[in-house]
Design a protein that fits this description.
Strand 4 and strand 5 form a beta hairpin. The two termini are about 30 Å apart. This protein has a single domain, classed as Rossmann fold (3-Layer(aba) Sandwich). By secondary structure, it is an alpha/beta fold. The protein contains nine helices and eight strands. Helix 2 crosses helix 5, helix 3 packs parallel to helix 5 and helix 4 packs parallel to helix 8. The strands form two sheets. It has a five-stranded parallel beta sheet with strand order 2-6-1-7-8. The chain binds 2'-deoxycytidine-5'-monophosphate. 2'-deoxycytidine-5'-monophosphate binds next to helix 2, helix 4 and helix 8.
Length: about 250
């Protein structure tokens, strides 16, 4: 019987639409961990900036505004709701204007510094955490106990995003979504500060031909295996035995 370690950070990184959010949320649920959607925090920063009329190139002003309003997740809801101050921005952060601007805004170093600090503070409070984003395994939690990099072809990622929107009762133009995904891939992986990379020591999983359940099953098995290792040797550091890339 595998124990549950007091703390274990599982990072899931990858490009837009690779299924990180859905996978991370379900894996967290199965393990009884908290789930952190860091992309939603960058999206919330854009929503706050738009609401306050701050130009979207002003990193310091956006970072200050985000600290002033305070971003907060409500961990009692599933998925956790995200608040900017008293305002529930969980839906707002998915709007097209936010999606359109989030890649360049997320490249602003002043904003990244503030959000990375907040993400580490969340991890100190919620030690058993599945966190997803672009830099979680590489920059924010380089010593995470388990690191995963999810990938999939751009076309399948666009198709999944479109389906997600339709499931939520929203309109979806797949071609437009594909163009947006490719633009964001380009921006996220070529920016100077914390570009999207496969983190050192991450397990790479191409989900193009896998169902959501298959990916979740696979990651749950990896997490349980990792927990069993921690249980055995009391070592919560990341073992190179997991390494598939360098
Ligand atoms: O995963 P997402 O589509 O909600 O992310 C929105 C944007 O935020 C995306 O352009 C990449 C950026 N992002 C980031 O730079 N670092 C993170 N940890 C998470 C997201």
């Amino acid at each position: 019987m595998t124990g549950r370690p007091a703390s274990l950070i599982i990072t899931i990184d990858g490009p837009a639409g690779a299924g990180k959010s859905a996978v991370a949320r379900l894996v967290a649920k199965r393990l009884g961990f908290h789930f952190l959607d860091t992309g939603a925090m960058y999206r919330a920063a854009v929503a706050v900036a738009i609401a306050e009329g701050i130009p979207l190139t002003h990193g310091k002003a956006i970072a200050d505004a985000v600290q002033r309003v305070t971003l907060r997740f409500d961990w009692d809801t599933d998925p956790p709701k995200l608040y900017a101050g008293d305002v529930d921005v969980s839906q707002r952060v998915r709007d097209a204007d936010v999606s359109c601007h989030v890649s360049p805004v997320s490249a602003l170093p002043e904003l990244r510094r503030v959000l990375v600090t907040q993400q580490r503070a969340i991890a100190r409070e919620h030690g058993r955490l599945v966190t997803e984003g672009r830099d979680q395994g590489s920059i924010v939690f380089p010593d995470a106990g388990l690191k995963v990099y999810l990938d999939a072809s751009p076309h399948i990622r666009a198709a999944r995003r479109a389906q997600q929107l339709r499931d939520a009762g929203r309109e979806a133009d797949e071609q437009q979504i594909l163009a947006g995904i490719m633009r964001r891939d380009q921006g996220d992986s070529t920016r100077a500060d914390s570009p999207l990379v496969q983190p050192r020591g991450a397990i790479i999983l191409d989900t193009t031909s896998l169902s959501l359940d298959e990916v979740v099953d696979h990651l749950e098995a990896l997490a349980l295996q990792r927990m069993a290792e921690i249980d055995c040797d009391g070592n919560e550091g990341f073992s190179d035995a997991h390494t598939t890339t360098e």
